[in-house]
Amino acid sequence: MAEISLKVNGETFTVECDPATPLLYVLRNQLNLVGAKLGCSLEQCGACAVLVDGEHALSCVRAASEFEGAEITTIEGLAEGDRLSALQQAFIEEGAAQCGYCTAGLLVAATALLEKNSEPDDREIRGALQDHLCRCGSHLRVLKAIDRVIHRVA
Ligand code: FES
Ligand code: FES
Prior knowledge:
Layout: E1 2-8, E2 11-17, H1 23-30, E3 50-52, E4 55-57, E5 71-73, H2 86-93, H3 103-116, H4 122-129, H5 139-150
Helix pairs in contact: 2-5, 3-4
């Protein structure tokens, strides 16, 4: 066991764990941030995605200790207080989730994309989301939600 320090959603946490523990387990089991999900556990589905220094990153395999010193943002950190991000709001407006298991990962992926490029084209959007699986088939509604934000549909 070791003590590691993680900065998550603007707060610094010290946790005790095996340093090889995947980040996702620390987020969910020790920090009670359960938005990111364990899907495949093999970096194949996207359900566990978080932002690391603003970049999309999968958290189910890489050790939590690798993320010391980085700014980690989970889906819980995308809202500002009670105000959802524009993308979160658009997902609601478009009903862009069914069971919701993939939704945090998709929101994180789309957030990372829009923070770099506020007007991505269709190819760029599909490229950013292509590694995110959704067994419920919500992708078309996710694309509509992203389009809503790009075109600032009220
Ligand atoms: S749980 Fe991490 S990519 Fe599937
Ligand atoms: S909404 Fe169910 S897996 Fe995507």
